[in-house]
Design a protein that fits this description.
Layout (H helix, E strand, L loop, with lengths): L2 E7 L2 H10 L5 E3 L2 E3 L23 E10 L8 E16 L2 E14 L2 E13 L4
């Protein structure tokens, strides 16, 4: 299984906590609290992702974010995380496993944010 679907309820408290953790100023539009643009990378850490070995150490590689609209407190997002590519490369520390992911988040049936993330694991794939 290389795809999972899950729901995310964006709360003001969660946005404040995340913004503070990355030292990002809080922003509002029309009184609504807005999530920092990088917040979608935290969404799928709440889920049990079947292709991850939880014992492996993961390093963030590349990240890209595309937003169709701001993520606001109170939104209920339908998210789909897909593993789109796996490749191995030889590095100075040994074999590197690069896992490319796509996270698509929709609000009320419309895409609102897409995050592309490469996570790097070290060692032979299991």
């Amino acid at each position: 299984m290389n795809q999972i679907r899950f729901q995310v309820q964006l709360t003001a408290d969660w946005i404040v906590q995340y913004a503070n953790s990355i030292h990002s100023p809080l922003q509002r539009i029309g009184g609504a609290l807005i999530a920092p643009s990088t917040m979608p990378v935290t969404f799928w850490r709440m889920e049990d992702v079947p292709w991850f070995d939880k014992a492996e150490i993961w390093i963030h590689g590349a990240q890209q974010f595309h937003h169709h609209a701001p993520l606001r407190a109170g939104m209920n997002l339908a998210c789909e995380l897909s593993l789109v590519k796996v490749e191995q490369k030889n590095g100075r520390q040994g074999v590197l496993n690069l896992y490319t992911h796509s996270l698509i988040c929709c609000h009320e049936g419309n895409p609102i944010a897409v995050a592309e993330t490469v996570l790097i694991g070290i060692g032979e794939m299991k």
